[in-house]
Backbone:
């Protein structure tokens, strides 16, 4: 079994769970915030959509520049509806899965860096990036979105068994 093959079941499970959460995205509450310094429900959903879109770059490029010297910083593209989020998410997940399936062990263990102003903020093997920057990052923001749903009386789907709304 390759390293990518060992990661795919976890990837598939977390992406399926994330899709379940995105399916509950309330089009009428995209601008809702839990606090003035918090991101909106729509931003968190858009961020969850973009994360699997980073997989190809992580697996194919040695670095990603989040804020190039003299340039504009990267910003999350904000999507405007549940349907737009689901369509983009499905495209990103399919492309990410293809990229992961085709990445040989010798590539997945090579170091990758996230740069800001040309300086590394994160450097680790690509497989570690897949676990932290992709999977754990997804789980982190998915939890925020579930909490936001709870605060808005939107039923939370079960992710690792039934949720309080499904019991």
Residues:
């Amino acid at each position: 079994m390759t390293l990518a093959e060992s990661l795919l079941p976890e990837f598939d499970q977390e992406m399926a769970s994330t899709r379940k959460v995105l399916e509950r995205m309330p089009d009428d509450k995209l601008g809702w915030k839990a606090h003035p310094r918090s991101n909106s429900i729509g931003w968190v959903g858009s961020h969850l959509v973009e994360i699997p879109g980073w997989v190809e770059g992580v697996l194919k490029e040695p670095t990603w520049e989040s804020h190039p010297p003299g340039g504009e910083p990267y910003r999350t593209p904000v999507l405007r509806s549940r349907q737009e989020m689901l369509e983009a998410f499905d495209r990103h997940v399919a492309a990410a899965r293809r990229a992961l399936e085709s990445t040989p062990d010798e590539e997945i263990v090579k170091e990758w860096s996230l740069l800001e102003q040309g300086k590394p903020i994160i450097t680790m093997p690509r497989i570690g990036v897949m676990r932290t920057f992709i999977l754990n990052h997804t789980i982190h923001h998915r939890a925020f979105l579930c909490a936001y749903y709870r605060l808005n009386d939107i039923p939370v789907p079960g992710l690792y068994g039934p949720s309080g709304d499904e019991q």
